[in-house]
Design a protein that fits this description.
alpha+beta
Amino acid sequence: MTSADEQIEHRQNQFHTWGVYGLLAVSALLSVAAHELMTSPAEWYAAGALVVAAVLLQLWHGPRRGRRTPSARGTVYYALRWAVSFVLTWLNPFFGFYASTGYFDSDELIPGRRRQWLGLLATVVVVAGSQSGGMPIRSPTQWLLFCGLLVANFGLLTVVGHIAQQEEQRSRERAVTISELERTNAALQRALDENAALHAQLLVQAREAGVADERRRLAAEIHDTIAQGLTGIIAQLQVVANAPDLAVARTHLERASGLARHSLGEARRSVHNLAPVALTDAGLPEALKKTVAEWGERTGVRAEFTVTGTAEQLHEEVAATLLRIVQEALSNASRHASAGRVGVTLSFLGDEVILDIRDDGSGFDPLTVPARTRSGGFGLDGMRARAERIAGSLTVESEPGHGTAVSARVPLVRHD
């Protein structure tokens, strides 16, 4: 129940509790003012005793604390109050104000719609008698006035009762609607909680899958770079062992030293790329800009980076995925494309992020790319798998002699 409903309920309790006392007091004061209507002391004594009885009856009934349920006790109270009001109105018509209290609570005291209407009719009779000049009715004119007032009061009461019944029906319907809305909201909240839990679970799974991919990628890089470098070093040292003179041995030692330095650099790069360190102190646009610039300096290839749209702080999984895709695409470009220019574009488009990597290298036929082996590099399949794990996609457009374009499209999930 809202505060407004509680306030309305409090006012209704106050009215039903103190309204009867108020109407009884008004009736008594008006009756004293019109003292000529009661001519004998016996009538005064009777009226006073009945007023006291009405007060005691109201005290016995007690204050109202919320809407009452019709009962036999309520019916007895209603009947006794009507009897007291009838006699008081017979003694003085101004007690009709007290008799009108029967209009307000018949539905809370008397069980059954027919009995309630009978109680209301009995109250109308007393009120109409009071309005027509008091009882007993003595002249035909007063009888006509009484009948007219009886019909008018009962008709008005019927109309008001019908309106109140319709309003009560609407209130019940509103209560049912509110209850259904509350259940719907509760179900929606549960669904949102379940979706949040599922989202968290998917992120955990994506992180675990990313870890597994990193392990496979690192294993492939070790095979492709460090292991091959160590194999070359061993081969050069074997030549040194069998070299016929010092000049030949020095030449092969220099080659072995160069291979060792290169392998060390590859090992450091692999360890560095094990986690997206570039994202630790900067957002994705800054990390990509730095990665592209360093790659261009290392390879001597002209590399450009562009951001379009309003940059936003992305979720760490999304940012790490896009950074890895750029690193792998640039690695492929340096190994296989022989490109003279590479462009990387990061586009923020409302609810998604698009990453484009283009080069003017030698290109290839996407339909003839060999299947990845256990000893092969990470390649296009790995980049596509990365994008798909965060509900994205990756497309590759290439043609021999006309360069390559890689485009990754992923949902824009903001940093939590």
